[in-house]
């Protein structure tokens, strides 16, 4: 079963690649095609990993290489899906968490590549998480709503204050919608942990980038990936981390 979920993740990764590329351009989501010559990819390249493995990771018509992002996303999704199966097994949470992971993967791609967190992704995701709050075990609908409300309000305030202090802020509307999604999926009280992890990871990585002079204070550092990290870590190991923190 683990390999079945890994395979499922591989295909989901191919779909995520497609959405991450097509959605920001507001084009209709197209069949996989070469971005250079525009011709459709042959079916055996719809998932890019096999072409990489056999060393033919390029367009058979014009020879343009397939970007490394494609196999990396596919491998990441395969590992994530297999891990979720191993962690949860047959559980109501399994299909929900598979969807959440897929949403996070698309957000990571568009935020890293274009500094965009799309409404076309976030609105359906928020609606899904809201409905899922009613059926998630170990969570009540009010806990999901409270989680969403707390995360939303907190990042709204951070965004408004950030704008007032630094001019046009580092924290955009997309980040605030993503925070709402993180809150809905983790619920209260775990949302507090998710926010703390987001801030700690954000501060640590920003600090590291400053020290290594890869970024200066004025440079833009996307906050989306930190929210994804905080939300995902809490979703997977939230109670374990809380236990360790309280009882160590
Ligand atoms: Zn081509």
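^ Assign residues to that structure.
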């Amino acid at each position: 079963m683990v390999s079945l979920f890994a395979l499922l993740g591989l295909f989901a990764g191919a779909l995520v690649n497609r959405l991450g590329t097509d959605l920001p351009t507001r084009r209709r989501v197209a069949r996989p095609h070469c971005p250079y010559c525009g011709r459709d990819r042959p079916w055996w390249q719809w998932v890019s990993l096999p072409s990489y493995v056999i060393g033919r990771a390029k367009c058979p018509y014009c020879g343009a290489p397939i970007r490394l992002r494609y196999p990396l996303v596919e491998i990441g999704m395969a590992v994530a899906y297999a891990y979720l199966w191993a962690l949860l097994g047959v559980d109501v949470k399994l299909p929900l968490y598979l969807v959440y992971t897929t949403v996070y993967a698309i957000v990571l791609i568009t935020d890293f590549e274009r500094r965009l967190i799309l409404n076309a992704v976030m609105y359906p995701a928020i609606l899904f998480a809201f409905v899922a709050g009613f059926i998630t075990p170990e969570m009540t609908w009010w806990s999901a709503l409270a989680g969403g409300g707390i995360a939303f309000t907190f990042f709204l305030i951070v965004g408004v204050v950030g704008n007032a202090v630094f001019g046009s802020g580092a924290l955009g509307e997309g980040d605030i919608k993503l925070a709402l999604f993180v809150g809905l999926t983790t619920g209260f009280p775990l949302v507090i942990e998710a926010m703390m992890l987001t801030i700690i990871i954000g501060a640590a990585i920003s600090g590291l980038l400053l020290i290594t002079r890869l970024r200066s204070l004025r440079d833009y550092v996307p906050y989306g990936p930190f929210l994804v990290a905080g939300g995902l870590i809490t979703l997977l190991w939230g109670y374990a981390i809380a236990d360790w923190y309280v009882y160590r």
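DSSP finds nine helices and no strands in the chain.
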